[in-house]
Amino acid sequence: MKAGVIYATGDIRYADFPDPSCGADDIIVKVAACGICGSDSPRILSGWKYPLPGVPGHEFSGTVVEIGKNVKNFKAEDKVAVQPFIPCCSCDNCRTGYVSMCDGAQMIGADMPGGYAEYCRVPATNAVVLGDVNITEAALLEPCAVSLYGVLGIEPVLGDTVAILGCGTIGQLALKWFRIAGVRRIIAVDISPTKLAEARALGADECVNGLEQDTVEAILELTHGKGVDIAMETAGSKITQEQCLLVAKKRGKVGFLGIARSDILLREKSFESIFRHELTLRGFWNSYSAPFPGPAWMKSIEAFQDGTIDFKPFISHKFPLSKVTDVFEMIQGRKEEYNKILFVMDEEGGKA
């Protein structure tokens, strides 16, 4: 089959790769679309630590084309969403329901070949039948579940004011979920006018451009000096990761969804805010809980199926897989601004 194959850090090419073999408890999925996760580009371009050659990609959807002999709940041509996280199901965290904290998990698209390919082997326990949906857009179910996992975990209350620091795909999806959860006011923060315009279109009440304003001062002014009930960090920037501590109100909550890319040295005022204001800090990793794959996944699927969340506004680019090298050169060179990029297997690519 054809795949986006990584041969070394920074070396990813459209090439032949062995077809997947279906085990007794597996299904083979014909990939319809696979998204580029915010974690994919730094791993592929700066520090790949998984088997080589490999096939990245963990945000994908497709149709079932082969079924293992022990698998009962799927049939050929079923449209499925894939959960790429494979828990061990035997460690203490798995047994107590904290599946995202599994001590022995493996990941499709890292430890084993993933969705930058025509076909992918998936344990049958890691797929959910979707029914009659747009199977290309279904590739966004994984980031949608990641966002909802954080929103569920931070426990918003009806009428809350929330600041979302970072308006990429995860931040925008979190914005949608916070609105669905009944928060009263959402303040969106980013350094991109395009991202802020997208956040406004998705329902943000106020927008703060961190390049043009002092983010902390702007949010405190908007909240009459009190701060927000919830500060949710989704950018993975050491700047916003610190700012969250300064914009949460006394006894407020801070959620961290963005991945750290560098060391963070907190100023005295920022660190003191944690204990002087008795802040609650929560980190959120992946999107899984019991019963696997968990409420974040199942609620995301339901919201996609019934149209509560429309994924179209989040997709900025679609490319054929044959453009995989060009796409990562575009990302590395910051040649274009983008939101969610999809590799779509049966369509011509370009801006969505």
TrEMBL record:
Listed InterPro entries: ADH-like_C (IPR013149), ADH-like_N (IPR013154), ADH_Zn_CS (IPR002328), ER (IPR020843), GroES-like_sf (IPR011032), NAD(P)-bd_dom_sf (IPR036291), Zn_alcohol_dh (IPR050129)
CDD domains: sugar_DH
Domain Enoyl reductase (ER): 10-336
Organism domain of life: Bacteria
Keywords linked to the UniProt accession: Metal-binding, Oxidoreductase, Zinc
Cofactor section: Zn(2+)
Pfam family, one: ADH_N
A molecular function (GO) term: zinc ion binding
SUPFAM superfamilies per UniProt: GroES-like, NAD(P)-binding Rossmann-fold domains
UniProt cross-references to Gene3D superfamilies, sorted A to Z: Medium-chain alcohol dehydrogenases, catalytic domain (3.90.180.10), NAD(P)-binding Rossmann-like Domain (3.40.50.720)
PROSITE patterns (UniProt xref): ADH_ZINC
SMART domains: PKS_ER
Stated family: Belongs to the zinc-containing alcohol dehydrogenase family.
Name listed for the protein in its UniProt record: Galactitol-1-phosphate 5-dehydrogenase
Species annotation: Selenomonas timonae
